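Q: What does the assembly look like in three dimensions?
Context provided by user:
Components: two
Sequences:
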Amino acid sequence: MSAPWPQLCRDCFAWSEAPTQTRSGARCPACGSRRTVAHPELRTLGLAHLDCDAFYASIEKRDDPDLRDKPVLIGGGRRGVVAAACYVARLYGVKSAMPMFKALSACPDAVVIRPNMAKYRAEGHRIRAMMLELTPQVEPLSIDEAFLDLTSTEALHRAPPAETLARLAARVERELDLTVSIGLAPNKLLAKIASDLDKPRGFAVLGKAEGRAFLAEQPVGILWGVGPALQKSLARQGIAKVGDLLGYEELELVALFGSIGKRLYRFARGEDPRAVEPNAPAKSISAETTFEADLDRPEQLAARLWPLCEKVSRRLKAAGVAGHGVALKLKTHDFRTLTRSRRLSDPTQLAERLYREAYAMLLAEADGRRFRLIGVGADLLVAGTLADPPSLLEPERLRNAKVEQAIDAVRAKLGEGAIAKGRGWPKA
Amino acid sequence: MKLTIERAALQRSLAHVQSVVERRNTIPILSNVLLDAGEGRLSLTATDMDLTIVEVVPCAVGEAGATTAPAHTLYDIIRKLPEGAEVELSTGGDGGQMSLRSGRSHFTLATLPREDFPASTPGELPRSFELQAEELKALIERTRFAISTEETRYYLNGIYLHAAQADNLEVLRAVATDGHRLARVQMALPSGAEGMPGVIVPRKTVGEVYKLIEETDQPVRIALSETKIRFAFDDTVLTSKLIDGTFPDYNRVIPANNDKTMEVDCRAFSQAVDRVSTISTEKSRAVKLALADGTVTLSATSPEAGSAEEDVPVAYAGPALEIGFNSRYLLDIAGQIEGNGAVFHLSDAASPTIVRDAADADALYVLMPMRV
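A: Here is the predicted structure of the complete assembly.
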């Protein structure tokens, strides 16, 4: 008989010993709650992935109690995709990233709400602030999920990481009226998988041994970095499940799939050497929009491109960075994604320069094909102080910068819609 | 086709033509070199569709004929053969393969029919003139560092070659700029170039021409139209498309009223810039010049690395002035100056600065300052 598993109550945070060796644990002997978690490594594991439950939809439901029992979808118009679906809507088979028309045919009574990103970002930042009170080792993946490394914080918090996390989840519920799911594991790979196991309002622990067993049965697509293209080449080798990778030596995988082979070898064994990297600097800043109806004419597409350039420019300025590269993204009516990118003569923060580059790339693609989405991004980011140096050939650059500063100032004072360039107006 | 040729001669010619061949080609035949044997000579042709090099080399022809073979592979084989070797190239009747024999080595290479090789038809090249290799080299050498690589303004991706008037003198000018710096070099207009159209010679062509003329002291015959240019010398002919675009009016950006003049020992100055810039950040490479009576103080700071400062004696009598430059651009320009003295003509911290070679009135550089 091995030692009994430690058990933690997620309501009163009392530690006990689990009477049976099951992960969901038994009733808490202190408060009687059924929300307990048990695991042999519960007192030692310290790497967590925290993921908010149906984040956008939950915020909207919180702010409008009439919505509480209705299926709620967050997304833009009939043509957009579902940015978030509440758990009621998920009962109808709706998932996030599903095209809105599909979601609505599965769940016709759904209430569709246009996303209010500013509100979601504010809530996301409040949760992040709570995480940062516990450890500086927080790596945000998006506004509603992050990795936290709480290893060696036991002395500081006078509690093992698991308890610190359970208290964090409770605090988010108490103060923000939102729920989160937590995955606790020895590394990022398993933590991210674990947070998904017990959703919503979940707390799942995945040790290395059972992580490996769990992974073996999963499709390879579950692994970080395995996208559709790699899945295809893996399938050609007869590798569909993660377990299929176990039959290969590391060198074989590298020979077959290149440098990612090394990672596949370790992932298949539940290992992940990646550290939690706080403030991993953004690699690119982008914005995109899906149209209500497909567009094909260059002037229509350009009119939708301009506000996106302004948005990216605003975010570059706010983040104090500048893009040395510009990327244009287009999605055709039959869902084929095209990306085109260019390197600039020097980094920029200006909407005008982003637009000029993206527009030139757009003209090369707008050949009569119908598009459903356009996006623009700034990448190869560098410090904002290097943005838009004076140029011999563009004496107007300084003027453009001043015009944009003036527009930004007007908007800061009078609101977004106070002033706009004609090129962004809808074209018939 | 059957021929015998000295390895050294073949290697030299292949080296010239194969560098035009792109490493990755969607059109298979563009990876090949056209080999055409007849009358005691082998002609080798390679192209990327924009740029074509033809080189002729003497050899012993057993049977005239032509084929195309993978350029890089053939070059690699020839390169690895021992010095002084003789090479025998031959194709069978069906022409699907080429056999290469040298000493005890034997290779069989896949070929593609010569008929599929894109024919280069330069068309009329009405304007033609001759330059000494040294002259052409000087034009290229002192301007090409400023060629832009930016895709959007593709018309900056080359050297703008044109006839111009300078102080009542007809000159041939080469100009290149990327918006940060501009290089303008001129020489007396060679006869035949009068009234030539302004043409933009693409970066890759500039590079290939430069490589080739480094090995020659023969005059280079240049012929051009509005769309093509041809360089011919020794046994080599290089024909290239020109960039179809309008080069900006560069005279507009050369300041006329920069009233402050600083003269500096170019070598001492660039060594100091190089030292001080060790500190400036990798991305910005900024160096600040603080001009005062008789001295310029170079300085650089970086939040991570620290700071650096060095005084360089100069001839300067104007008011105190601080101005920042990208150190790499400063060094690029200093590297072009052959004499001892570099002369800076400055206006203020935000305006373009002119740099000239004290010993050479034909070269002029404009450098945009940066904020420091």
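Follow-up: The CA atoms of residues 11 and 245 of chain A lie 40 Å apart.
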